[in-house]
Structure formats: structure tokens, C-alpha cells
Design a protein that fits this description.
globular; alpha/beta; 266 residues; Metallo-beta-lactamase, Chain A
Length: 266
């Protein structure tokens, strides 16, 4: 069977200032700025659209002191995607910045690892260090959606649609998954938080928010094994993504880039 080729977009919806020490397990000796961007992604073919993660809203941004640039659901319309009509949404994990706008996708089925749901509703949430990344209201919304038969829980690697696959890796959270998307340049790996920044992978230093550090190291190996080249891996929070890839059109510069074309730098 010939696989469809998707146009793949990264949409930047929020940002925050940070320092290098914030982004590496064990800190970093260089006291220098290293801002973090927040993205959602959309894979669009002639026959299907799959959204990857759904971001957070302005209220949560204010609570967590993030700069909310735009509603991620509204921003999907910039690439011709109507969130009200989207049928499939992949939730890479249930942290607040990936799972905060369920109500804006009224027709969607949400794809998530069953182990992530167990983690977010289980015994480890009594520990503030592990619970900090979650918003309880988001987790409760997912539980209600499951009762409404709108959640598809996967147990490991799975095909969501022809040309779109999820891969459980854990590490950052117990049930983190990343996504591979078939495009005109081959399989592109949307790492989400399996690698927050290019430098996490390149220096083999994971992000400090960790459920299982060993799984975080192994996730770098899995990303590399499933990517045709290192340039096919797209980290989840790196502002460099916006610099390396082209905007679909001039007015979207700094807002949206296309990941189905080769990066201009690596």
C-alpha cells in the first residue's frame, strides 16, 4: 500500500524566558539565556488531518507565568485546519502544555498511551515534584471523555492512521509517546518531550523533569532509530525549530513552519 504524504506543520503558540541550567539534568555550567517555545503540530493530507497535542489556554499561561501568544486551536486555522472538524488528536502526554484545550476539539477522538492515563490518575500524583506538570482539570476532562467513548488508549507502538504512528517511550512521564509522520521527505519524527531541545539529544543530557531517567536516555536511541537522519527529528520545545524550517508563507514567519521540507540548517 502506498502511504499518504502529509504536510506537517509546527505552530508556536507560547514562549517563556529561561536559563540553560533549567533544561539539563544536573544543571549546566553556563549561565546564559535559553528560552523555551511551546508548539502544537498538524499533519495534513488530501484525505485526513491529525493534530498532535493541543496546548494550554491563556488562564493557565497566566497561572504558570508563560507568555501566551495565541490560542493553539485558533492558530490551526492559519494552515487550513478547523479544530471543530478534526477527527483525530494525538496527546503525547498529559502535561499542561500538551493537553489543555480538549473542549475546542468537539468531534475528535484522542489517542494516548494507557500507561500515561494510569500515571496521571495514579499513586505518583501525590508527589508534588511529579504532579507539578499536570493540571488536574485537564486529567479530569480526559477521564470524562473516556466515559464518552472519545479516547483511544494505546498499549505501546500503534498506527493511528496510514502514515502516522505513535511510539511509547516513557521517561519524561510514564506514558510519553512520540509520533512519526510520513512526508515527502520521508518519515519525520515529532519528538515532543522525548527531546525538548536539539541539545538534549546531541549532548546526551536529558531534560530535568523525569519520571524514569534511564527511559529518557533510551528515548534518544529510539528517536534516532526511527529517523532517516538526525535532521528528521524535531524536538518539542526548541526555538531553533522556527529558525531551521521555512514558514508556509511570509505572514506566518515566526508562527508556523513546515516540517515536511528539509531544514535550511542543522
Amino acid at each position: 500500500m502506498t502511504l499518504p504524504e502529509y504536510q506537517l506543520y509546527a505552530i508556536r503558540y507560547a514562549t517563556r524566558p529561561a536559563q540553560r541550567r533549567d533544561h539539563f539534568l544536573g544543571g549546566d555550567p553556563h549561565d546564559a539565556p535559553m528560552p523555551m517555545d511551546y508548539f502544537v503540530w498538524a499533519a495534513v493530507s488530501e484525505d485526513r488531518t491529525v493534530v498532535i497535542d493541543i496546548g494550554f489556554n491563556a488562564e493557565v499561561a497566566n497561572k504558570r507565568k508563560r507568555t501566551h501568544l495565541r490560542c493553539p486551536a485558533d492558530a490551526l486555522k492559519l494552515v487550513g485546519v478547523d479544530p471543530a472538524e478534526v477527527a483525530d488528536v494525538i496527546i503525547t502526554h498529559l502535561h499542561y502544555d500538551h493537553a489543555g484545550n480538549f473542549e475546542l476539539f468537539p468531534k475528535a477522538e484522542f489517542h494516548i498511551q494507557e500507561s500515561e492515563v494510569h500515571y496521571a490518575t495514579g499513586r505518583h500524583m501525590r508527589y508534588p515534584r511529579l504532579a507539578h506538570g499536570f493540571e488536574a482539570d485537564d486529567v479530569c476532562r480526559l477521564v470524562r471523555l473516556n466515559f464518552g467513548r472519545r479516547v483511544r488508549m494505546h498499549d505501546g507502538d500503534a498506527e493511528v492512521a496510514p502514515g502516522i504512528r505513535v511510539h511509547r517511550t516513557g521517561g519524561h512521564t510514564a506514558g510519553l509517546q512520540f509520533v512519526t509522520v510520513h512526508t515527502a521527505r520521508g518519515w519525520v519524527v515529532v519528538a515532543s518531550d522525548a527531546a525538548h531541545f536539539y541539545e538534549n539529544m546531541e549532548s546526551q543530557r536529558p531534560f530535568p523533569t523525569a519520571f524514569h531517567v534511564g527511559d529518557m536516555f533510551e528515548s534518544f536511541d529510539r528517536l534516532a532509530a526511527l529517523a532517516p537522519t538526525p535532521d528528521h527529528i524535531v524536538p518539542g520545545h526548541d526555538p531553533q525549530v522556527m529558525a531551521r524550517y521555512p514558514a508556509p508563507r511570509a505572514d506566518l514567519q515566526g508562527i508556523v513552519v513546515r516540517l515536511d521540507v528539509a531544514p535550511s540548517q542543522s
